[in-house]
Each structure stands twice: as structure tokens, then as C-alpha cells.
């Protein structure tokens, strides 16, 4: 089998590789591994990972550790904590728990998996305007969006990344007040989708988890790129990455 051609010195491809490899503030959004939702046949509110989910977490840790991690923030839910644990060990970084990075609140405790599936299918078929209220009898979407974006901005502010919103022109730029760092957030499909849309300066919709739908234990990467006299904007560099799972034999390509 012939080898793939490599970028030639001085080529456009090589210049792009060099630019992408420069040190920028980076946020990696990692979704948790497979949860054991119904360990005794009924849904539980805060499940841990299945053995398969633990294997996914180890594969993600091995891959992300190669990039170097400066700070690690984790949802308070068990499935995120257990996903973050092997990464924390691999990079020697103490994980910080941020409760407001937890998934949108839904009460399906004690239901069978069949009933849980029916709940979400029926709720998804409501008129689109109703989705602003969140899932039935659960956390309203606007409340969920507010707590996640507030938590995200609080995390980034700890590392010198502060948003400045221009109301006149309708965009946000970020001021960098420290050295560039690589921050990993280990959370959930909905949480990470809201966070990513917020970084990309997109107006929210109450189905963010569909707009940026991610697989279990996949990750997405955003860089803060300099733009304008002093500001930065977020650039989506990778979305829904699963090569680490494929290489570990945990997913077919």
C-alpha cells in the first residue's frame, strides 16, 4: 500500500499546518462515555459508566494527553467524573468540579428504558415554540442555557479569557489577559452543544443538542484566534472527533 503524500516544504498545505499548530487558547469539549442508565431495569438519576464507557474514557484520555492539558473542568454528574478520571491521571492535572456544567434537568427516575425513550420521542414531536420550556415538567431551556453559559464564562475568566459584547454590531470578541492555555471540559451532549454555540457567537435555539449532536466520548475543539486590534474570536477546529474510539476498536469507522 502506498503512503499518503505529505505536504511539501513551503507549500500552502504546510503553511496551514504550521498556522493551526501555533499556540492559541484552546477549549476541548469532551462528552462522557456510555452511562449505565438502567442498572436494575429502571432509570436512575445519576448513573456511572458501563465497562464499555470506562474503555471509551481511557481511549479519550490517551488521545487528549498527547496534546497537553493545562486545566480540567468536570460536570458534577458521575458519568462525567468517571470519564475525566483517567485523563486527570494521564496529564497530572487536578480536575475541578463545576456543578452548573451538568446536563439539562429531566425527571425520568424509575422509568423503564422503553418508557424513557417514549418520553423523549413524544416530547420531541411538540410544536417547536414549546421547546423553549424544556422537556415536559423539567428544567426550562432558557434556565439551562443561562447556567451553562455563565459557568463557561466563569471557567474561561479564570484563565484570562473575558467576553466583550458589542451591542451595536451584535457580536462578541474575547479579551485575552494571560498566556494561552488548553482547557478541557468534560460534560454532556446538551451542555457541550450550548457551550460550543456560545463560543461561536450563535443565537441559542432550544434544540442545541441536535444542532451540535455529538457521540458518546467524542470531543470537539475550539481555538481563540486573534481578530481585530486587540480581540479574539472562537474558531471551530474539530467537531465530534471519534478517531480515538476507532483506533481503540470501540467504534467502526
Which secondary structure elements does this structure contain, and how are they paired or packed?
Blueprint: H1 12-21, E1 26-31, H2 51-65, E2 71-74, H3 78-91, E3 95-97, H4 113-124, H5 141-157, E4 161-166, E5 171-176, E6 182-187, H6 189-199, H7 208-211, E7 219-227, E8 231-241, H8 243-247
Helix pairs in contact: 2-3, 5-6
Task: Explain this structure.
Helix content is 35%, strand content 20%. The two termini are 19 Å apart. It has a single domain, classed as Phosphoglycerate mutase-like (Rossmann fold). A 6-stranded mixed beta sheet has the order 3-2-6-1-7-8, with helices on both faces. A hairpin with a 4-residue loop joins strand 4 (161-166) and strand 5 (171-176). It has helices spanning 12-21, 51-65, 78-91, 113-124, 141-157, 189-199, 208-211, 243-247; strands at residues 26-31, 71-74, 95-97, 161-166, 171-176, 182-187, 219-227, 231-241. With 253 residues, the protein is an alpha/beta fold.
What would you call the shape? Answer: globular
Strand order of the largest sheet: 3-2-6-1-7-8
Q: What separation lies between the terminal Cα atoms?
A: 19 Å
Structural class category: alpha/beta
Strand content is 15-25%
Q: How many individual β-strands?
A: 8
Number of domains: 1
Helical fraction equals 25-40%
Name the poorly predicted regions. Answer: none
On the 0 to 100 scale, the average pLDDT is 93
CATH topology: Rossmann fold
- Compute the gyration radius: what is it? 19 Å
CATH architecture: 3-Layer(aba) Sandwich
Q: Which CATH first-tier class would you pick?
A: Alpha Beta
Number of discrete helical segments = 8
CATH homologous superfamily classification = Phosphoglycerate mutase-like
Helix-strand pattern, N to C?
HEHEHEHHEEEHHEEH
Largest sheet: 6 strands, mixed
Amino acid at each position: 500500500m502506498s503512503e499518503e503524500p505529505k505536504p511539501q516544504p513551503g507549500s500552502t498545505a504546510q503553511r496551514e499546518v504550521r498556522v493551526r499548530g501555533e499556540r492559541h487558547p484552546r477549549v476541548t469539549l469532551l462528552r462522557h462515555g456510555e452511562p449505565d442508565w438502567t442498572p436494575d431495569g429502571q432509570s436512575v438519576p445519576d448513573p456511572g459508566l458501563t465497562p464499555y464507557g470506562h474503555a471509551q474514557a481511557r481511549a479519550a484520555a490517551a488521545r487528549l494527553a498527547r496534546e497537553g492539558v493545562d486545566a480540567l473542568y468536570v460536570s458534577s454528574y458521575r458519568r462525567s467524573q468517571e470519564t475525566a478520571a483517567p485523563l486527570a491521571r494521564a496529564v497530572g492535572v487536578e480536575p475541578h468540579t463545576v456543578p452548573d456544567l451538568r446536563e439539562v434537568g429531566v425527571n425520568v427516575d424509575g422509568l423503564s428504558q422503553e418508557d424513557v425513550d417514549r418520553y423523549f420521542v413524544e416530547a420531541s414531536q411538540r410544536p417547536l415554540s414549546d421547546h423553549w420550556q424544556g422537556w415536559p415538567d423539567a428544567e426550562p431551556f432558557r434556565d439551562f442555557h443561562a447556567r451553562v453559559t455563565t459557568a463557561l464564562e466563569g471557567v474561561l475568566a479564570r484563565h484570562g479569557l473575558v467576553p466583550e459584547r458589542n451591542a451595536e454590531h451584535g457580536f462578541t470578541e474575547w479579551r485575552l489577559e494571560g498566556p494561552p492555555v488548553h482547557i478541557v471540559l468534560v460534560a454532556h451532549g446538551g451542555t457541550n452543544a450550548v457551550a460550543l454555540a456560545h463560543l461561536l457567537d450563535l443565537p441559542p435555539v432550544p434544540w442545541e443538542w441536535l444542532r451540535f449532536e455529538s457521540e458518546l466520548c467524542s470531543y470537539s475543539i475550539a481555538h481563540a484566534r486573534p481578530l481585530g486590534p486587540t480581540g479574539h474570536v472562537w474558531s471551530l477546529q474539530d467537531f465530534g472527533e471519534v478517531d480515538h474510539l476507532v483506533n481503540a476498536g470501540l467504534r467502526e469507522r
